[in-house]
Amino acid sequence: MTNPSESVIIVVVSRALARLIQLFGIYVIIHGHYSPGGGFQGGALLAAGVLLLRMTEGGRASQSEVSTEAAIPLAAVGALIFAGAGLVTLAFGGHYMDYGAVPVPGVEEPVVRYYGILLVEFGIGLAVMTALVAIFDDMVAPDPYGNAVDAAGDRAGTPPKL
Amino acid sequence: MIEFLHSYYAYWAIILLLVIGLYGMLVKTNLMKKVIGMIIFQNAIILLFVAAAFKWDATVPVLDPAYPSEDPVNYLNPLPHTLMLTAIVVGVAIVGVAFALLIAIYRNYGTLEEPVLMERMRSE
Amino acid sequence: MLLLFTGLLVYATIHLPARGDPEAPMHRKENVVGDPVAGAYFIGNAYRDAATPNMVTVILADYRSVDTLGEVIVVFTAGVCCLLILRRRMYD
Predict the structure, then answer these.
(1) Per CATH, which fold does B2-123 belong to?
(2) What are the structural domain ranges in chain B?
(3) Nearest-CA distance from B117 to chain A in Å?
(4) pLDDT confidence of residue A144
(5) Rounded to an integer, what distance in angstroms lies between the CA atom of residue A127 and that of residue B97?
(6) What is the predicted ipTM?
(7) What percentage of chain A reaches a pLDDT higher than 90?
(8) Which chains touch C (3 or more CB pairs under 8 A)?
């Protein structure tokens, strides 16, 4: 768990900046149809916003963004959105991930694929963001056994050698 | 001759990067430096694919009405771009798992230098 | 040995098609037996098939979506692996 930064300037500026980064991440996901972008890049940007808060506000204060316990289940939800989109097309008689097979009245097949791609990009973005946050949280977590070895090869619990 | 160099200099720069990464993985004894060598190697391969997707006088693979899409000469090849996009994300995942393993090793043995690590593993 | 390897790779690149040549085999419309090549096919048909201008997005989420599903599962597995390596006490 990271500690909050001691500088007020860093905390205040990073709070404002993190929102801008997350907004840009959502823009990159949604506008990925018309410009370079998409789920992977937008997910990485969203994770960058969360990790900036983790490093400056401290791990405890930034749990309201994506909490440590919720990260892995949310990544599973993102992957399941992706797989579920494929299963829906199977239910309508198409191939796996063949979005054009879903009959939506009044909408042509390419436009159905357009919205299928958008849904899948959201799933990718959610999975990538939460997986990156989970990896970061695991790396800064304290040693679960509490008997870490220091650089000289001594157990932390044993008294220093003379 | 100049034209020949102009066609291939990018590949040679990428090969230089690849060999730097291989040197890091083979010669350095610190596990952290080995992981950094692996990252350099990975990025060299990503750059190789992106360089291979390049075409002179072509634009990015986002459809523009000014460039007809019937003629593939107008657009860069989008397939290597897509493959490398996913490869970058998988690379991040690999680096994450590698760092997690290094953290676990450091907690148990207190070092990432290979000779010291082997000695401590033998003495346990 | 590394220098030998470098020399081997440089020797190999001389036989590659020149960088940026639109007539290279991977950029052509048809290969030597007359089948369509993937890159040119995606350029020509991406907008017709999915109404999306960005070809990379169409390939990522439509033509090669099963591949992308595999990538997402790899990222998810990496997250679970870090959890299992570094947070083992929860399961002891």
Answers:
(1) Helix Hairpins (1.10.287)
(2) 2-123
(3) 10
(4) 63
(5) 16
(6) 0.79
(7) 22
(8) A, B
